[in-house]
Amino acid sequence: MGVNASGLPENPYHQLAWIIGEPEIGEGTWIGAFALVDGSGGLTIGAGCDVSAGAHIYTHSSAMRCVSGRRYDAVDRSPVTIGDRVFIGANAVVQMGVTIGDEAVVGAGAVVTKDVPPRTVVAGNPARPIGRVVLDDPQRPTVDRSV
């Protein structure tokens, strides 16, 4: 792959998205502008997902290398798995090692540090469950906030 006019590696999703490594991305998934998708540690994104503008998905961390003054010389990596039909809101961050189940919703600005069960709505920093996706009528999905 080459580099586009923005100086970012070319990708089939958005010219202003930065996709690193070789993530597996399912059919019909949309990735917005300014999203950072890090596949360097292993990343699978299911079919029909939306990754909103500014969202970051990380499969690596250099925190321990940094705080040790580089005495710990490794960059830690752990795969991320995102199920089918998952919505990731604007400016959300998904940390390495996390699994997000099918049909889950990650709210805008959420920081996901732990696994998210299927059909769960999470928000906040750190992200916590705030509702359940209800698909009794697929034409009119709702959120049950009685969690």
Q: What do you see in this structure?
A:
This protein has about 150 residues and is mainly beta. The protein has one domain (about 20-145): UDP N-Acetylglucosamine Acyltransferase, domain 1. The protein has one helix and 18 strands. It has one helix at about 65, and strands spanning about 20, 25, 30, 35-40, 45, 50, 55, 60, 75, 80, 85-90, 95, 100, 105, 110, 120-125, 130-135, 140-145. The strands form four sheets. Strands 3-6-11-14-16-17-18 form a seven-stranded mixed β-sheet, with no helix packed on it. It has a five-stranded parallel β-sheet with strand order 1-4-7-12-15, with no helix packed on it. The chain has a four-stranded parallel β-sheet with strand order 2-5-10-13, with no helix packed on it. Strand 16 (about 120-125) and strand 17 form a beta hairpin. The longest helix is centred in the middle third of the chain and has 5 residues, at about 65. The protein is globular, with a radius of gyration of 16 Å. The chain starts with 17 loop residues before the first strand and ends with a strand. About 30% of the residues are buried. The mean pLDDT is about 95. Keywords: Acyltransferase, Repeat, Transferase. InterPro entries: Hexapep (IPR001451), Hexapep_transf_CS (IPR018357), Trans_hexapeptide_repeat (IPR050179), Trimer_LpxA-like_sf (IPR011004). GO terms for molecular function: acyltransferase activity. It comes from Aeromicrobium endophyticum. This is Acyltransferase.
Question: Which descriptors apply to this entry?
Answer:
seven-stranded mixed sheet; globular; 1 helix; mainly beta; UDP N-Acetylglucosamine Acyltransferase, domain 1; 147 residues
